[in-house]
Amino acid sequence: MIRQGLFLILLCVAGTVQAMPHGCSALAVEGSDHAEGSDLWIFASDQEPRHVLAAKRPIFAASWSPDRREIAFSVVPTTTDFATEVVIAEVTGRVIGRFKVDRPQSELGLRYIDGIDWREPQALVTLGNQGPNGGYMDVWRLSKDHTRAEWVRRGGFLGGSCVVSPSMQYVACAGLATIYIFDTLAGPAHHNGSVEDQDYFATPISEGQSEFERAVEGNLTWDTKGPTLYAVRLENSKRVLTAIEKNPAAPEGWSTTDREIAGIGSDSRVVSIEVDAHGAVMLSTAQSGGGYDHRAYSLPGAAATASTAGLVARAASPTELRRPTVLKAAVGGKERLFKVLDSYCQSSTSQR
Predict the structure, then answer these.
(1) Which helix (H) or strand (E) holds 83?
(2) What SS3 class is residue 105?
(3) First vs last Cα of the chain: how many Å apart?
(4) Between residues 175 and 76, which one has the greater pLDDT?
(5) 258 with 242: CB under 8 angstroms?
(6) CA geometry: angle at 86 spanning 338 and 109, to 5°?
(7) What span, in angstroms and rounded, lies between the C-alpha atoms of 312 and 301?
(8) What are residue 304's phi and psi, to 5 degrees?
(9) What whole-number distance in Å separates Cα of residue 267 and Cα of residue 254?
């Protein structure tokens, strides 16, 4: 535990509190299930939480630069007549640049930005929310001083929780019961410059099941070493780990493997999934009925995507999670909840 005298940076885990992993930092806003905070904070292991800046409107997305010297973030527009923007700031909070992502919502543009991923020193990805049926993924080339950005390409996708592949070619989105993968380099560009993949991949639906019986739990995550996507789903009343791997020989270009997961109680729900620096798949869960009784699990053998054998979830220390979803911290003498927007660990790449 962190020594007394410091503000505590805590994970909410099974009635106990634990420090963040050593060498890891989190970029967060005050909030829990929905990021409604307008104050941006940095949390680092063995350090006091540090307030970076205060915005006039909620911050839904933020990302560190690869060297962690700067931050890209987006604030929800004040009205539908204001265009969505990305702001670049130093970690001290000093704003050094900003650029428009799209037209205002009143002009049929994006409503807000709900995902930012700073991949390379001069490569930035944004995910924009346009309506109930999706939005756009945009790739931007930043100037060397990070004060300006040049638009590279745009891909259209369906709504839901979405993640971008390491190559920035594919966007994977989770609907209530289906996972979609879109190729942003497939097909001709429309008049607005977007590529909408008409032949996108979608996980098959089992006949006779309702959407709630095959729901996706938590987020999606890409393996950083190759085009393999992981998700946790309910299938035939069982919890399974779904691995979707790029396979040119498969009819739709992707092969899917479902493996049953044992060892997680039915009273829990998976809230996050991540692949650590060694390629291991990690899960965190919370109570199904709400609350913050978070637990961590590892899935040995999950990386063997060709295997169909079942998996047994093993209890793990919460400090092994590189991307906690929620932090509880005592700041200014008051205990608060914060939603993590981005995280970074010195021993591995950023966990988006």
Answers:
(1) strand 83-90
(2) helix
(3) 26
(4) 76
(5) yes
(6) 110
(7) 9
(8) -80, 80
(9) 33
Other Cβ atoms less than 10 A from the Cβ of 195: the count is: 20
Residue spans per domain, the chain: 9-345
d(CA 190, CA 174): 24
Amino acid at 226: G
Indicate the pairing of strand 228-235 with strand 216-222.
Answer: antiparallel
Residue pointed to by tokens 């929310």: 129
The 3-state DSSP class for residue 214 equals helix
Average pLDDT over residues 184-195: 77
Distance CA 155, CA 192 (A): 10
Q: Say which residue, 135 or 52, is predicted with more confidence.
A: 52
Lowest mean pLDDT: which of 71-80, 132-141, 166-175, 191-200?
Answer: 191-200
* Cβ-contact 52, 93 below 8 angstroms: yes
| Residue 227 near residue 221, CB atoms below 8 Å | no
CATH of span 9-345 = 2.130.10
Model confidence at 351: pLDDT above 50: no
The 10s digit of each residue's pLDDT in 79-123 is: 999 999 999 999 999 999 999 999 999 998 899 998 999 999 999
CA distances from 73 to 62, 91, 271 (A): 4, 11, 23
Question: Which among 272, 351, 345 has a CA at the least distance from the CA of 21?
Answer: 345
231-269: per-residue pLDDT in tens?
999 887 789 999 999 999 998 899 999 999 999 988 888
Max CA separation in the chain (angstroms): 60
Torsion of CA 52, 53, 57, 59, to 10 degrees: -20
Would you call 320 helix, strand, or coil by DSSP? helix
Q: How confident is the model at residue 32 (pLDDT cuts 50, 70, 90)?
A: low
